[in-house]
Amino acid sequence: MTSLAREAPGTRELLMGNEAIARGALEAGVQFATGYPGTPSSEIVESLARVANEAGIYVEWSTNEKVATEAAAAASFAGLRAFSAMKTAGINVALDFLAHLNYSGLGKNGGGLVMVVCDDPEGHSSGDEADSRWFASSESIPLLEPDSPEEAKEMTKWAFDLSEEFNGFFLVRTTTRISLSSGPVTLGKITFTGRKASFDTSQCISPYLAKLHHIDVLERLTKVAKAFEKSSFNRYQGPQNPELIIVCSGVGTRYALEAVQSLNLGKSVGLLKLGTLWPFPREFVEKHLSKTKQVLVVEEIDPFLETFIKKTAFESTTLSGDLKVYGKESGHLPRIGELRPDLVIKALATLFETEYVDREADYRQKVSDASEKLLIDRGVTWCAGCPHRASFWSIKKALQKDGRDGFLTGDIGCYTLDVFPAGDKLIKALHAMGSGVGLATGFGQLGQFGSEQPVVAVCGDSTFFHSSIPALLNAIHNKSNMALIVLDNRATAMTGFQSHPGTAFDAMGNKAPAIDMANLCQSLGCKVVITDPFDIKGTTAKLRRLLKEDKVKVLIMRRTCELVRMREEKKPPYTVWVDAEKCRGEKCGFCTRSFKCPALPWDIETEKAIINKAVCSGCGVCVDICPFGAIVKQEVS
Amino acid sequence: MVYHDDPLNLVISGVGGQGNILLSRLIGRSLLRKGYHVAVGETLGVAQRGGAVMSNLRASKKMPVGPLIPEGKAHIILSLEPLETLRMLVRYGNPQVTTITNFNPLFPVSVLSRKDQYPEYDALKEAIAKLSASAWFLDATGMGLELGAPIVANVIILGGLISLNLLPLTRDDIEEELKASFSPDRVELNLKALNLGMESIASNTQVSN
Lengths: 637, 209
What we know:
- The complex is a heterodimer of chains A (637) and B (209).
- Chain A has 637 residues and is an alpha/beta fold.
- Chain A has 22 helices and 22 strands.
- Chain A has a 7-stranded mixed β-sheet, sandwiched between helices. A 6-stranded parallel β-sheet of chain A has the order 16-15-17-18-20-19, with helices on both faces.
- In chain A, helix 10 packs across helix 13.
- Chain B has a single domain (8-208), classed as 3-Layer(aba) Sandwich (Pyruvate-ferredoxin Oxidoreductase, domain 3).
- Chain B contains 8 helices and 7 strands, in the order E-H-E-E-E-H-E-H-H-E-H-H-H-H-E.
- In chain B, helix 1 (20-33) packs across helix 7 and helix 7 (171-181) packs antiparallel against helix 8 (184-202).
- Chain B starts with 7 loop residues before the first strand and ends with a strand.
């Protein structure tokens, strides 16, 4: 594999948007990078971490996004170029600090500070479709949005220069289809700034007195607006007097181009592509929109540009009084979900009253027949050998036997799949990182109001450190009656096995002190029990006993993520097979039906359970599930 | 036959964990080397946990392209699981599309819990064939198991694609990319898989309309 940090100016590489951003930071001479993993942003800091030693930079996975931005800001205050990346949910966590940082500025010799935030329209891997561009407008933070991996690299680089010039941090916003898509990127030169960190102690970097700093913030924005008006990341292509102009940003730019080409409207439609979104490049937009009487806005998630185009039109003295602005508010494009090229083609076709046929009626009919008769969904599920499948099996049994209608509150990780078809939907409230514990502290107080239901919060090892600890302290201090189960699989598994404060290695692969969560909880005064989730009987019994105690109790279900184990050990622990003589087949079906392991289907002819050798990880847990002893395992030597 | 449309739209689908991302990278890099504007849209994150995953790969000589294929506009669908071939045909299929399927049914979790029924294999094969201009079926996972590594089913399918000459890519182009992508000890296995896929497609079932 070639390194992202290699010197090869001029080479064209196929890079994922997130890798391109990382390369942009390297080309800008970044020295200090932080983040917390979350799809669709994880590969940015991951890529930097992978080349940290080679490039001579410092990279960390921070405990959470707020800490990440604080750590990066410190490096900037001391003169280094610093960087942080996160998903939109993460910027919510960091915003308290970021809002104040935007007021304080970066101090006397602040190094360029760039933050990347990745939105996830469609909620492919997120609990919302939040549009982070509003943070930029509400907090007066400058924001750029690239239309491709190539531009993502260039913009990231430029954002460092801007940050130093205007003494404030800059946001780069991407969406899933920029971050996780790959495209050609021309590599530039890597800058080794080699700056020595030095913090000027003659200052105090702070937003207080707020009113005075608010003036600075608005003045900064006015100056940035001037730079943005001239930026080549904003451009117009198309006829002199188009019938309609598509204003587009981000990946919408490519879809708009494709729509114009597919409908052969190059002579009637112009494209006004915007890359500097906040402060809104008002004069530039006004100048170009004066060429037309109709506008279609193509952007991801909310009608953000649409709002400011309408405001511009309302206040303008040069724009046509009857300028029509189409987009999400007019219903030409959907408010929900991500953009797709065909949605843009159809919107444009509607406005030009032309027909767009994606396939002929008879093929469409055949497709709909086949779909109706044969197509079924494929829900996400735990991998074969995943400790969570066994953990949830035991939790289900313990809650059933406990018999008081107990329930789980949860948060974000692979174990969240419990609420998908993989699981039995034991988690009854599921919101944000660490929120399962916060909710449980509240539920655990409801005994005084007549509740008799036990409440059990579940979190992962990474979310335990990320934001569960303050809630746990709250529970202990306020004498809440709750249990916490930490599903400790020794990795930030969902996003690609990144390090966290409990792992014995850091982001750059160096040895690191692993924080012992059992000791930590014990020192706080919780009752702590550790169990191996593959020991189903023992785990169920331990949980049942804990549920009877009226205090804060912690059960750590500890077993390494199967994908990590396999990568390290390179062979399964057991060979597993089904004894067809003993298997009752479809008359029973208990193992396949209730354990739902993807490696344990059945033979469609004999109807007996079988092990799919291409999928089985050899964990052997199903051996304990079968009521007839028909599943057999043998240790692999 | 090489597809001459521009952009060229290739869908790669499967079940999370089967290695479809590797395929899109290998093909994407090779096409980039040939001077195409390439864009690859991918499913990452939660869908990788046993869900339906797909890559959209697009290549144009004329203009930069976006990472998603419009509905009904795929030229080729490579799929590592037959139910996923059908899913992709429903979304991207058209009367000109070629499909290559690893006929290795993996039951979705809703089938394991008996909420849904997996389609009968013959009916599934027939539906795929009916919606494709030409449909190829390989047991790539079976061949992979014989090589001791079921994960190379993806490269076996790629071998099938290369031998059909649908893309402006040769075996040598792919070999070069395999050598750049894998450590030396894995290169040999993957080259074996590539050859196996190329050989077996000739002797395998093609259903043409």
